[in-house]
Amino acid sequence: MLPLIQLLRVAIGRTACLDTPLDEAAWLALLETAKKQTITGILMEGIKRLPPSQQPDTETMFTWLAAAERTKQNSRRLNKCAVLLTERLKRDDFTCVLLKGQGISLCYPEPLTRTAGDIDLWMSGGREKIVSYIRTFFPRVSVVYHHMDLPVFKKVSVEAHFTPSWMYNPFANRRLQRWFRKMWAGETQNVAALPENAGNISISTPAFNRVFIALHIFRHLLDEGIGLRQLLDYYYVLQTDEATNEERDESIQILTSLGLQHFMRGLMYALHELFGLEKEKMLFPPNEKEGRFLINEIMQAGNFGRYDTRFAQEQQGDTHLRRFLRKQQRNAHFITHYPSEVLWHPVFRIWQFVWRWYKNYL
Questions:
Q1: Residue 278 gets which letter from DSSP?
Q2: With 0-12 CB in 10 A as exposed, 13-18 as middle and 19+ as buried, what is 195?
Q3: What are the CA-CA distances from residue 234 to residues 108, 171, 223, 239, 258 (Å)?
Q4: Strand partners, 97
Q5: How far does Cα 109 stand from its chain's mean position?
Q6: In what helix (H) or strand (E) does residue 85 lie, and over which residues does it extend?
Q7: Per-residue pLDDT tens over the stretch 301-314
Q8: Per-residue pLDDT tens for 287-296?
Q9: What's the predicted TM-score (pTM) here?
Q10: Distance (Å, rounded) from C-alpha 133 to C-alpha 140?
Q11: How buried is residue 206: exposed, middle or buried, by Cβ count under 10 Å (0-12/13-18/19+)?
């Protein structure tokens, strides 16, 4: 087992130590990998749990501590910004639910150690109202099917969501959007306190996260690439879940109706192999072949696929056509695993481009 996974298992309390001690060079290499996978703060918690004989030397330890502290500072910044922004939007007649990110971090034993990305807000009012409101302040912001940027902070990215996610398959997408509408009212009522008295905010419920976080992993797997942080999120969603069998069955039914059962079986295997998720916590029976494929994708691509050398990376100034062709090349890699989404992808992309052009959303 890779030292990265060994230390991660120590961090989440699955094991007490590494198989063998690491030298200074190995610790520094592990830090670079941790940064690529955006799990530096989590692994620092693992280092603290190691027996003294397996911990890095003082100088290397301070390097790790500095990186982990930056993770915490960034989490604090995002927490404050999320509360500040939702309070402002509420005054402007928008109800918001915080998706993923800082809400999911509350499932972690130490929420601030989770590497924060951006702020994703699911907003009330519908697409037209949200676009009109944001473009009053930022007229050049483009719009895609499910969200648009809300560039109110210099150092924190914000996405304003009309809907949390989507499917390329239009029939599955219709079912998904119907489920989102059904869940909306309950999500707005799920208010939680963010760490260190940052404030209270509506976050997604466990019932929502059982479906949405899995779908989020699937979307990133197809569209960009996925890292260990996203899988660790779902591990904690399931590990801390106190749902009844009836509630779990409802989540299974939704995921199956979206055609994700094949992916979910691979995801269950990956969560077991990487983090030791118990079978009684799984939503689907694990599939080794699909799970190993998923693990390989994670280790090669890193967070958001930024370190994937198999496919061309997006370049500044790329044309719409070039981005479309690159997505097609990447998606072809998944044709035997998730054929429905791959085959519907070009149809969705072409439709969305025409729709965005017609709506002046480009």
A1: -
A2: middle
A3: 11, 26, 19, 8, 18
A4: 122
A5: 18
A6: helix 58-91
A7: 655 545 555 555 56
A8: 999 999 999 9
A9: 0.92
A10: 13
A11: middle
